[in-house]
Amino acid sequence: MGRRRSGFPGELVRKNSAFWLQCLLGLALVALVVLVFRTTQSNLELLGVQSGFDFLWKKAGFSISQHLIPYTEDSPIWVALAVAILNTLLLAVFCIFLASLLGLFVGIGRLSSNWLVSRLSLAYLEVFRNIPVLLQIFFWYYVALRALPSLESSIFISDYLVLNNRGLYFPFIEFANGFSINPPVMGRFAYEGGFYLMPEFLALWIGLSLYNGSYISEIVRSGFQSVARGQWEAGTALGLKPATVLRRVAFPQALRAVLPPLTTVYMNMFKATSLAAAIAYPEIVSVFVGTVNNLAGRPVEVMAVSLVFYAGVSFLVAWLMGRWNKRVTLRGQ
Amino acid sequence: MKTSTARQSAGLPGWLRRNLFSSWWNAAVSLVLLGLLAMLAVRLFQWLIIDAQWAGSAPSACADTTSLCWPFVRARWPQFLYGLYPSDEVWRVNLGLAAGALLGAALAVRRMPARRWIAAFLLLAYPPLAWWLFRGGTWGLTPVETSLWGGFFLTLVVTGSVFWVSLLAGVLLALGRQSRMALVRQACTVWIEFWRAVPVLVLLFVVIIMLPLFLPANIEIDQLGRAMIAFAILMSTYLAEAVRGGLQSLSAGQYEAARALGLNWRQSRLHVVLPQALAVSLPQITSNFIGLFKETTVLLVIGLFDLLGEVQRAASDPQWLGTGTTAAGYIFVAVFFWTACFCLSRASSRLERRMTRYRAAAT
In this complex, is the C-beta atom of A50 within 8 Å of any C-beta atom belonging to chain B? Predict the structure, then answer.
């Protein structure tokens, strides 16, 4: 790298050569981008593909089996996109909640003085962490949920919670005229009213939560173990109950060690919701990257929108967790 | 909480009292868990062994479509291993994989002579040779299209090839992110941070649909190639982050010492910085490797048949339809992946412990 003499002048020569090297690299990058852009343009022209985002306002023309906002086949494509985004976020939120709960209990279970509890927690961790998550989702979807009884012989977990091979039905708040709670009622062909989670959703929810819960349990365990022994002893010496020491002394300190790796698992879980495309749960990959891409014939725009969505949410989550992390870290460290 | 030492006694009763029945609360929890465990064990045994169908290897052997159907695995075994690879040419797959396994095993023996040369051969010459053997087309080997590859074989090929390319690219990206040249540093950072936010399935679709548009019409890359490019883009950014962790753990003194010795950039990275950084980040690298291995199952979504894809394809054969066959196939795949990942992670943590000891002895 450049001529090398001893001392300061040599540094100058190196800095200069680095400058020209950077210019060269920058030019090469720009040239590559221009080349790819030109090739893409001519390829699209050859294929007769139009460009632009106007397709978002065209009629969608396909149905979506789960929509949190009003949607029909006549709705424009951007509404379908919004439906898909909401479905993705719903799944992600459900998964984050259940996986965190599982991870917290199993992680604490690992540290239990009860041999059976700690061994079972370890068994859970080793079993679910070492099997591909897609296989687990398939197992729940194609084997476990298929074994559920049909509509006629539904399982009533309680009066309002109904489970059969079409999904899980539960009461839901109704805003139509005023405010009421709307339980599922057996209609002519299916349960009506209330809210229901389709089998695809359930399989993804269970599969992703069990898989990522195992990672979270490991994070929780090492978080609690990072709390100094003296802290536990001091808490006990103050006469606090073990559960109180866990909650008020150990947990706040463990949180500091837990948050950064937890952010990574949450992000991974959010990204993994895209596996929904494998069993056709209508989230952004199956609706937008799949169906809309085939119908609209605007590959570049469709891909750009999905990439921006995933990158945007990931950066948002990273930013929020970073702020939370800043609040819990010790001042002066 | 542990009971006082005075009440502890030796032998099984003492162990039980200490670990399962140390208090009323603990005793209750233990009993409930034991009950549940016994129930689960009985149900599992019933489902996996007693109620399962064992005899035969034809679809007629599984008259009952709901109970577990092991003949399905026996009948479709070759397909699970090799996909649609022509059976006359399967020896090539066996030879290639066996050679790789042998080289790997030789590397694991610590007192192996010429270990350095074996490593160099495995890293530099083996991958292209194996690809040539599998793909054929020259020097008298019949060509075998990659669309025929599948099963366990495809899982291994994708994992191995992607990891091989990504490790090299990842090291370069990690070094680039540390570079003193602002442009290189920024470019690498943006590249890594962006791709880290994208799910593998989305990137697979992006590459499959966009790559042909980016390339001139006369360059054609098949589905497997595109899938591997997508995997390699993600894997290299993950590995770059792993290596960066190792690079940051080195003290500045190491960099300064290398420069004081008069080593240039390439020499200092190759002989001083990278050997130490890679050793530190080895656990991270292995866990990424395990992640990649598990993630190859996603290939079935884009119409490539890895191990899980082959099982899925075989289970959708109308002759074998039923949850019993599907479940048997899944259990087979699960056992395979579980064993491989468990052994890999155990080996990795053993290596980590050994290195910690080694480093503690060195300082």
Answer: no
Residue of B18, B44, B183 to mutate when probing chain A, most A C-beta within 10 A: B183
Q: Which residues of A touch B215 (CB under 8 A)?
A: 39
Question: B121 to chain A nearest CA, in Å?
Answer: 30
Residue among B198, B300, B330 whose CB faces A143 most closely = B330
Cβ of B140: how many Cβ atoms within 10 Å?
A: 6
pLDDT digits (tens, 9 = 90+) for A148-188: 877 767 777 766 777 877 778 777 666 666 666 666 666 66
**A143 vs B326: CB contact, 8 Å cut-off?**
yes
- In terms of Cα–Cα distance, which of A260, A229, A217, A225 is closest to A102? A217
| Disruptive mutation site among B301, B302, B326, B348 for chain A (greatest number of A CBs within 10 Å) | B301
Asked if A23 contacts A16 with a C-beta cutoff of 8 angstroms, the reply is no
* Tokens encoding B159: 């994992």
How confident is chain B (363 residues) per 10-residue block, as mean pLDDT?
A: 52 79 82 91 86 76 78 84 83 86 83 82 86 81 82 91 92 88 86 90 90 82 90 94 86 83 84 83 89 92 89 84 84 93 89 79 68
Answer yes or no: do B297 and A299 touch at CB < 8 A.
no
Q: Is A228 on the interface with B (CB under 8 A)?
A: no
Tell me, what's the ipTM? 0.87
Please answer whether residues A303 and A285 qualify as being in contact, where contact means their C-beta atoms are separated by less than 8 angstroms: no
The two structure tokens encoding residue B138: 């020259």
Give B151 to chain A, closest Cα distance, Å.
Answer: 14
User: In the 3-class helix/strand/coil scheme, how is chain B assigned residue by residue?
Assistant: CCCCHHHCCCHHHHHHHHHCCCCHHHHHHHHHHHHHHHHHHHHHHHHHHHCCECCCCCHHHCCCCCCCEHHHHHHHHHHHHHECCCHHHHHHHHHHHHHHHHHHHHHHCCCCCCHHHHHHHHHHHHHHHHHHHHHCCCCCCCCCCHHHECHHHHHHHHHHHHHHHHHHHHHHHHHHHCCCCHHHHHHHHHHHHHHHCCCHHHHHHHHHHHHHHHCCCCCCCCHHHHHHHHHHHHHHHHHHHHHHHHHHHCCHHHHHHHHHCCCCHHHHHHHHHHHHHHHHCHHHHHHHHHHHHHHHHHHHHHCCCEHHHHHHHHHCCHHHCCHHHHHHHHHHHHHHHHHHHHHHHHHHHHHHHHHHHHHHHHC
Q: Which of residues 80-139 of B touch A (CB under 8 A)?
A: none
Q: In this structure, what DSSP letter does residue A64 have?
A: -
Residues of A in Cβ contact (< 8 Å) with B216: 39
Q: Which residue of A has its CA nearest to B215?
A: A39
Question: Which residue of A lies nearest to B35 if distances are taken between CA atoms?
Answer: A116
Comparing CA positions, the residue from B269, B244, B228, B248 lying closest to residue B192 is B244
Tell me the whole-structure pTM to 2 decimals.
0.86
Query: Is residue B157 classed exposed, middle or buried when 0-12, 13-18 and 19+ CB atoms within 10 A define those classes?
Result: buried
| Residue A276 sits at the chain B interface (C-beta within 8 Å) | no
**CB spacing of A278 vs B300 below 8 angstroms:** yes
